[in-house]
Amino acid sequence: MPNTWTLKDKVFIKYIGSEEIQAAVRTLATRINQEMQDKVPVFIVILNGAFIFASDLLKKIKIDCEIAFVKLSSYSGTESTGSLKQVLGLDISLKDRTVIIIEDIVDTGFTLDSFLQQVWEMGPAEIKIAACLLKPDAFKMKFPIDYLCFSIPNEFVVGYGLDYDGLGRNSSDIYQLHIQ
Ligand code: IMP
Protein backbone atom coordinates (compact mmCIF):
# COMPACT_ATOMS: atom_id res chain seq x y z
CA MET A 1 0.00 0.00 0.00
CA PRO A 2 1.19 3.58 -0.62
CA ASN A 3 2.50 5.87 2.09
CA THR A 4 -0.51 8.16 1.98
CA TRP A 5 -4.17 7.24 1.62
CA THR A 6 -7.00 9.67 0.95
CA LEU A 7 -10.37 8.58 2.31
CA LYS A 8 -13.20 11.00 1.60
CA ASP A 9 -12.06 14.36 2.98
CA LYS A 10 -9.10 13.11 5.00
CA VAL A 11 -5.50 12.19 4.27
CA PHE A 12 -3.85 9.36 6.19
CA ILE A 13 -0.18 8.47 6.42
CA LYS A 14 1.22 4.97 6.80
CA TYR A 15 1.94 4.45 10.48
CA ILE A 16 2.50 0.76 11.28
CA GLY A 17 3.45 -1.52 8.40
CA SER A 18 2.12 -5.02 7.92
CA GLU A 19 5.41 -6.75 8.79
CA GLU A 20 5.57 -4.98 12.14
CA ILE A 21 1.93 -5.85 12.80
CA GLN A 22 2.45 -9.50 11.91
CA ALA A 23 5.50 -9.72 14.20
CA ALA A 24 3.49 -8.27 17.11
CA VAL A 25 0.58 -10.63 16.44
CA ARG A 26 2.98 -13.61 16.39
CA THR A 27 4.43 -12.57 19.76
CA LEU A 28 0.94 -12.23 21.21
CA ALA A 29 -0.14 -15.64 19.90
CA THR A 30 2.95 -17.27 21.38
CA ARG A 31 2.11 -15.80 24.78
CA ILE A 32 -1.50 -16.90 24.61
CA ASN A 33 -0.51 -20.42 23.51
CA GLN A 34 1.82 -20.66 26.50
CA GLU A 35 -0.39 -19.06 29.13
CA MET A 36 -3.55 -20.89 28.04
CA GLN A 37 -2.06 -24.31 27.34
CA ASP A 38 -4.06 -26.02 30.11
CA LYS A 39 -7.33 -24.30 29.18
CA VAL A 40 -9.85 -24.34 26.36
CA PRO A 41 -10.68 -20.64 26.04
CA VAL A 42 -13.60 -19.05 24.26
CA PHE A 43 -12.45 -16.19 22.05
CA ILE A 44 -15.11 -13.53 21.50
CA VAL A 45 -14.42 -11.39 18.45
CA ILE A 46 -16.00 -7.94 18.50
CA LEU A 47 -17.22 -7.08 15.02
CA ASN A 48 -16.75 -5.25 12.79
CA GLY A 49 -13.34 -3.77 13.42
CA ALA A 50 -11.57 -6.79 14.93
CA PHE A 51 -12.14 -9.12 11.98
CA ILE A 52 -8.64 -8.87 10.43
CA PHE A 53 -6.74 -8.83 13.74
CA ALA A 54 -8.78 -11.79 14.99
CA SER A 55 -8.22 -13.74 11.79
CA ASP A 56 -4.45 -13.23 11.93
CA LEU A 57 -4.25 -13.96 15.66
CA LEU A 58 -6.50 -17.02 15.69
CA LYS A 59 -4.64 -18.71 12.83
CA LYS A 60 -1.63 -18.72 15.15
CA ILE A 61 -3.47 -20.11 18.18
CA LYS A 62 -2.56 -23.78 18.46
CA ILE A 63 -4.44 -24.78 21.63
CA ASP A 64 -8.03 -26.07 21.54
CA CYS A 65 -10.44 -23.14 21.63
CA GLU A 66 -13.89 -21.98 20.63
CA ILE A 67 -14.60 -18.81 18.70
CA ALA A 68 -17.70 -16.63 18.92
CA PHE A 69 -18.57 -13.33 17.25
CA VAL A 70 -20.55 -10.42 18.62
CA LYS A 71 -21.70 -7.13 17.33
CA LEU A 72 -22.30 -4.29 19.76
CA SER A 73 -25.05 -1.93 18.81
CA SER A 74 -26.01 1.22 20.66
CA TYR A 75 -29.37 1.24 22.36
CA SER A 76 -31.57 4.02 21.17
CA GLY A 77 -33.47 5.95 23.78
CA THR A 78 -31.21 5.53 26.80
CA GLU A 79 -31.25 8.29 29.32
CA SER A 80 -28.23 10.45 29.67
CA THR A 81 -25.14 8.60 28.57
CA GLY A 82 -26.32 6.99 25.36
CA SER A 83 -23.25 4.78 25.62
CA LEU A 84 -24.86 1.50 26.62
CA LYS A 85 -24.23 -1.29 24.15
CA GLN A 86 -26.50 -4.14 23.26
CA VAL A 87 -24.82 -7.46 22.51
CA LEU A 88 -26.01 -9.23 19.36
CA GLY A 89 -25.10 -12.81 18.63
CA LEU A 90 -23.60 -14.09 21.87
CA ASP A 91 -25.50 -17.35 22.05
CA ILE A 92 -23.03 -19.78 23.67
CA SER A 93 -22.68 -20.56 27.36
CA LEU A 94 -19.73 -18.86 29.05
CA LYS A 95 -20.37 -20.43 32.46
CA ASP A 96 -17.02 -21.26 34.14
CA ARG A 97 -15.13 -20.67 30.90
CA THR A 98 -11.96 -18.71 30.24
CA VAL A 99 -13.02 -15.91 27.90
CA ILE A 100 -10.63 -13.89 25.73
CA ILE A 101 -12.24 -10.86 24.13
CA ILE A 102 -10.63 -9.75 20.87
CA GLU A 103 -10.99 -6.03 20.13
CA ASP A 104 -9.42 -3.92 17.39
CA ILE A 105 -8.71 -0.74 19.34
CA VAL A 106 -9.35 0.46 22.87
CA ASP A 107 -9.82 4.21 22.99
CA THR A 108 -11.77 5.49 26.02
CA GLY A 109 -12.59 1.89 26.97
CA PHE A 110 -16.33 2.65 27.32
CA THR A 111 -17.31 0.08 24.69
CA LEU A 112 -15.40 -2.72 26.37
CA ASP A 113 -16.46 -1.68 29.85
CA SER A 114 -20.16 -2.12 29.14
CA PHE A 115 -19.52 -5.35 27.24
CA LEU A 116 -17.37 -6.70 30.10
CA GLN A 117 -20.21 -6.15 32.56
CA GLN A 118 -22.54 -8.19 30.40
CA VAL A 119 -20.02 -11.00 29.93
CA TRP A 120 -19.37 -11.20 33.71
CA GLU A 121 -23.12 -11.70 34.19
CA MET A 122 -22.79 -14.91 32.14
CA GLY A 123 -20.61 -16.49 34.85
CA PRO A 124 -17.21 -17.01 33.20
CA ALA A 125 -14.28 -18.19 35.32
CA GLU A 126 -12.08 -15.38 33.98
CA ILE A 127 -11.99 -12.77 31.24
CA LYS A 128 -8.89 -11.61 29.37
CA ILE A 129 -8.70 -8.89 26.75
CA ALA A 130 -6.64 -9.01 23.58
CA ALA A 131 -6.43 -5.76 21.61
CA CYS A 132 -4.39 -4.74 18.62
CA LEU A 133 -4.20 -1.07 19.62
CA LEU A 134 -4.59 1.00 22.80
CA LYS A 135 -4.66 4.76 23.13
CA PRO A 136 -3.42 5.14 26.73
CA ASP A 137 -4.00 8.91 26.80
CA ALA A 138 -7.68 8.42 25.95
CA PHE A 139 -8.26 5.35 28.15
CA LYS A 140 -10.59 6.15 31.07
CA MET A 141 -11.09 2.70 32.59
CA LYS A 142 -9.27 0.55 35.13
CA PHE A 143 -9.42 -2.93 33.60
CA PRO A 144 -6.18 -4.39 32.25
CA ILE A 145 -5.52 -5.02 28.56
CA ASP A 146 -3.92 -8.42 29.01
CA TYR A 147 -2.67 -8.98 25.47
CA LEU A 148 -1.74 -5.88 23.48
CA CYS A 149 0.15 -5.35 20.23
CA PHE A 150 0.68 -1.56 20.23
CA SER A 151 0.15 1.50 22.41
CA ILE A 152 -0.39 4.53 20.16
CA PRO A 153 -0.90 8.29 20.58
CA ASN A 154 -4.39 9.71 20.77
CA GLU A 155 -4.75 10.17 16.99
CA PHE A 156 -7.32 8.65 14.66
CA VAL A 157 -6.14 5.57 12.74
CA VAL A 158 -7.55 3.42 9.94
CA GLY A 159 -6.68 0.16 8.23
CA TYR A 160 -6.25 -3.39 9.48
CA GLY A 161 -10.00 -3.58 10.12
CA LEU A 162 -10.48 -0.03 11.37
CA ASP A 163 -12.57 2.38 9.36
CA TYR A 164 -13.13 6.03 8.73
CA ASP A 165 -16.81 6.49 7.92
CA GLY A 166 -17.04 2.94 6.58
CA LEU A 167 -13.87 3.10 4.47
CA GLY A 168 -10.33 1.94 5.06
CA ARG A 169 -10.80 -1.45 6.70
CA ASN A 170 -9.21 -3.34 3.80
CA SER A 171 -5.55 -2.64 4.45
CA SER A 172 -2.88 -4.82 6.00
CA ASP A 173 -1.13 -1.64 7.21
CA ILE A 174 -2.33 0.88 9.79
CA TYR A 175 -2.60 4.54 8.76
CA GLN A 176 -2.75 7.63 10.96
CA LEU A 177 -4.72 10.78 10.27
CA HIS A 178 -2.48 13.45 8.79
CA ILE A 179 -2.91 16.68 10.74
CA GLN A 180 -2.37 19.57 8.32
P1 IMP B 1 -13.97 3.27 22.98
O1 IMP B 1 -15.32 2.83 23.47
O2 IMP B 1 -13.77 4.75 23.14
O3 IMP B 1 -12.82 2.47 23.58
O4 IMP B 1 -13.94 3.04 21.40
C1 IMP B 1 -13.80 1.79 20.86
C2 IMP B 1 -14.30 1.75 19.45
O5 IMP B 1 -14.25 3.02 18.79
C3 IMP B 1 -13.41 0.82 18.64
O6 IMP B 1 -13.86 -0.51 18.69
C4 IMP B 1 -13.50 1.43 17.26
O7 IMP B 1 -14.62 0.91 16.58
C5 IMP B 1 -13.72 2.90 17.49
N1 IMP B 1 -12.45 3.67 17.42
C6 IMP B 1 -11.79 4.24 18.44
N2 IMP B 1 -10.67 4.85 18.02
C7 IMP B 1 -10.64 4.66 16.67
C8 IMP B 1 -9.70 5.05 15.64
O8 IMP B 1 -8.66 5.70 15.87
N3 IMP B 1 -9.99 4.66 14.39
C9 IMP B 1 -11.12 3.93 14.08
N4 IMP B 1 -12.01 3.55 15.00
C10 IMP B 1 -11.77 3.92 16.30
Key descriptive features of the protein:
single chain; 180 residues; alpha/beta; six-stranded mixed sheet; four-stranded antiparallel sheet; 3 helices; binds inosinic acid
Concise summary:
The protein is an alpha/beta fold and 180 residues long. It has helices spanning 18-35, 51-59, 110-120, and strands at residues 4-7, 10-16, 42-47, 66-74, 85-88, 98-106, 126-134, 147-151, 157-158, 174-177. Helix 1 (18-35) crosses helix 2 (51-59).
Topology, pairings included?
Layout (H helix, E strand, L loop, with lengths): L3 E4 L2 E7 L1 H18 L6 E6 L3 H9 L6 E9 L10 E4 L9 E9 L3 H11 L5 E9 L12 E5 L5 E2 L15 E4 L3
Parallel strand pairs: 3-4, 3-6, 6-7, 7-8
Antiparallel strand pairs: 1-2, 2-10, 4-5, 9-10
Helix pairs in contact: 1-2
Inosinic acid binds next to strand 6, helix 3 and strand 9.
Task: Trace the largest sheet across and list its strands.
Answer: 5-4-3-6-7-8
The topology string of helices and strands comes to EEHEHEEEHEEEE
Helix content: 10-25%
The major sheet is characterized as: 6 strands, mixed
Structural class by SSE content:
alpha/beta
Mean pLDDT over all positions? 92
Number of strands: 10
Give the number of helices: 3
Strand content: 25-35%
Bound ligands, named by name, code or SMILES: inosinic acid
Low-confidence stretches: 76-82
Any idea what the shape is?
globular
Q: Radius of gyration over alpha carbons?
A: 16 Å
N- to C-terminal distance: 21 Å
Description:
This protein is globular. The protein is 21% helix and 33% strand. Helix 1 (18-35) packs across helix 2 (51-59). The chain has 180 residues and is of the alpha/beta class. The model is unreliable at 76-82 (pLDDT under 50). The protein binds inosinic acid. Inosinic acid binds next to strand 6, helix 3 and strand 9.
